[in-house]
Amino acid sequence: MENNINGNYMKTDVVIIGAGPAGLRCAARTAELGFKTIVLERRSGTDEVNPIIVGAARIDNLLLQERLELTDDAIYFPGSDFSLNRREAEITAPNQGLVHWAGNGSIFGATFQTPFFIHLNVKYWLKKLYEKAVEAGAVVLFGYEGTKLIRKNGKICGLSARSHEEENIEISARYIVAADGACSRISRQGPFSRTPFPEATGVHNIGCIFQGAKNSEVENGSNYIKGAKNFYWGSYYCGSRNSFAAVTPMGDDIMHVGVYAPEGKTGWTLPLPEQLDFWIKYLKEKSSLRKVFGDAKPIKKCGAYLPYLNPIEEPFTNDMGSIGDAAMLVEMVYAGAMQSGWRAGDVVGEILKNGSSGPALADYMQWWKPVCRKKIGLVKFMVMLSTLDNDDYGQLFDIMGCAKDLDPHRTGLEETMKTGVKKLLEYPYKNRLSPQLQAFVRMAGNR
Predict the structure, then answer these.
(1) Can you name the residues that pair with 233 across neighbouring β-strands?
(2) How many CB atoms are located within 10 Å of the residue 357 CB?
(3) Which CATH architecture has domain 4-49+124-195+310-377?
(4) At 311, is the pLDDT very low, low, confident or very high (cuts 50, 70, 90)?
(5) Contact present, 37 and 349 (Cβ < 8 Å)
(6) What sign for the dihedral angle of Cα 13, 15, 19, 24?
(7) In sequence order, what are the residues at sequence separation of 6 or more whose Cβ sits closer than 8 angstroms to the Cβ of residue 182?
(8) Where does the pLDDT of residue 298 fall: very low under 50, low under 70, confident under 90, or very high at 90 and above?
């Protein structure tokens, strides 16, 4: 299963742009199915990725749990013998792979579960995925970036690429897969339509990890939940309009505070570093977490900009696919990208073998469509929240049935989505809603 490589020209069955979790998982699968596969990656190697905490992700898909070998009582990297120190992992990211823990809680009388949270050591994980792809027969070319799709008679038939040394190559391929992230140049050249997000273009986030927190010192009546993100909406109670904070307690004394502000029509009222300082001051002095913060000291700050990236709801044609973050910032971070890649490998194999898609694509879309709907609804809901004033918030929480003594200043995002959107859409007296809530109901009802 050797690829035809001749100077600046290559010929293969599948070329994948991006050696991230989606691209490498897809490459391993297409190579495993017997198709010649080349992967292009602009980085010089998997070790260029920093081993950072990339986020806590809810894993409630049973099939994915099985693939990752997650269990209720084990903390380990799948397929390895390495034991992980939970506390060390929570502070600096796990040394050998992933960590998860179980938890549950109740908000506004509705019970929700957070059964699996994971933190990934990205460098270690990508190395393992790379080894699996190469073992299956894929060729990974580091230091090459896809630049332009090649079309002949209206059909995509290849790709131009350039190395770090400005060497240009041309790859002829039966199928192209864009897996090079949220800013994918190749995906945007493809034959895909994206669902527009006219209200906002992305979200800025900045965070700080504290050590020395007293996570057991929570005031009576608070719904503060360990092992979960606790959300505080901005303009409802502290005046920082168009931003919100998420507080995540980890273990006994580690606390992460993240601040999120949408970009676009909503904008924000303070520079993001000032918003972080503002929120920390508020949480320390005025929220139910005063005792929790105590004398906790900041030990690390981090931040990023996440484009909302209009999702591609139909990510496959007969000659090209777009997967992982290239199609949409997937909800489950690297775990979602890996699932996207593995399923995509089956879709590509099916198209190359039969000339058209079939059961594999149907299986992919059964997974993908709910992910898209959830992401679209989440973005619209977050944008709507950032435009509310105090009266709007009061009406929203009344419709949600929030008990007044349960501190409605914060709520789990997942529960807000499920409860808030559902009850708003079912609310029988829509003409009594504020103009902002009416606008959201019209927008959400069109999906």
Answers:
(1) 244
(2) 18
(3) 3-Layer(bba) Sandwich (3.50)
(4) confident
(5) no
(6) negative
(7) 306, 307, 309, 325, 326, 329
(8) confident
